């Protein structure tokens, strides 16, 4: 008689029938759930074995079925990836002997296509027979309903060819059935492309061939950096889900995007910086509407460049051209990138304080930014037209002194020696001495106050000078760190440091700094950095790491030379020479 017993109390019930040798083995069988599958599918392999078990009062509480040996499943790893392992045990009595039956379940993913063989597996003294599995390339056809896929990936690109650095929008859709317990969906990557995520993923449901799928959709913006063919790595998915019956299923799939042709910069493009975008526009604000202002009046001008289809880091800085009759104090530019369903939208904003210093007419020059319209496949130019301002001089103060000094002298003489008044100098001098004493006292108090104020001003001047030295050191340290890292902040920090170190001069741009220092080595290093950051693709070796040691060394040398020949501590004039502040 054969009876099967399962459950946690089976060991106690079997004490009355325990007997036989310690362990013995029987046959080992290998059963795949199918012998033909596609490369993205998962194979379930069941391995069954049995062994005799000896349980007595001495080992009743120490016996562990999980400690039994296992088959050498590692032999399949040449052709299959083992995704999961599971095992089940049951015990039965056969002719008063306890026999343990063990079933090992493995989830296998094929590593290649063709006819793959699961080699003979060993369990103690038993060996299984080999099994041949046929793996077909591609994915199952949609019309094949008898073997409906549990998960699959769809890829789509908005273009089949792009220019170098042009935006390519990639859409990844993962379809799956059941309740997803875990899952890993890879992201697109390529050594010669910049990849930006376009926001959070979307989740929704879709029906395909009458089957309801849950869908996870992700979008990415890709910017190829080299011309040629762009071939992305396969997008892969691995996960686990439970079906309506509560069964656990392993999901696995992969998909490849077709090769994208990447074209070089067109020969007819006339700009210095290659800008392929859907749109690019320039705007400005902050200038007076009536075109009139007064010398010394402060203006805040904001220039904004807005693009669709480019990251903000790729936008070039605005040209730093202003007439000599106006001083410009630019702030740090602001760059923002906003992801959307159609790609990236970026803005570059440059705010500059403008102070006219000479009366008359002045014209802010035209700003032209050539760019390439990827929609019409042609060059376009964004323009801010020239702007003319009329600067009026500073009105003079009203003069209260008589226009003719001689008349004033004669008036004073007649007042002091008028015979008609009936008073002589001696008679009028009766009240002179009290007034003179009071005037002397007031003068002494004024002198004392002036002395105290000069002492305080001298002390404050020393504190300000000390603070200026510390500010200069901090700016120079930040400048060297930015130069070492090849940061776009380097040029802005250079202008700010020179303005702090030489307050008697005005530095509006790097060009002004180079003109003042007249240092060919430093100018060459700065030009190399700017070419690397903002140059046309192909003209700068952006793939090579930046070596900032030479630029830092040139800055340290220039700072040391300037310290030896630094002028005295003098405050710059409030207005430049030639600007009349009174009439």
TrEMBL record:
Keyword Transmembrane helix listed? The answer is yes
Which keywords accompany this UniProt record?
A: Membrane, Signal, Transmembrane, Transmembrane helix
Bilayer-spanning residue ranges: 431-453
Q: Which residues form the DUF7939 domain?
A: 473-559
Q: Which domain of life is it from?
A: Bacteria
Q: Does the keyword Transmembrane helix apply?
A: yes
Q: Where is this region: Disordered?
A: 310-344, 394-428, 561-583
Signal peptide annotation: 1-24
Coiled coil (UniProt feature)? none
Q: Please give the name of this protein.
A: Oxygen tolerance
Q: Top-down, what is the taxonomic lineage of the species of origin? A: Bacteria, Pseudomonadati, Pseudomonadota, Gammaproteobacteria, Pseudomonadales
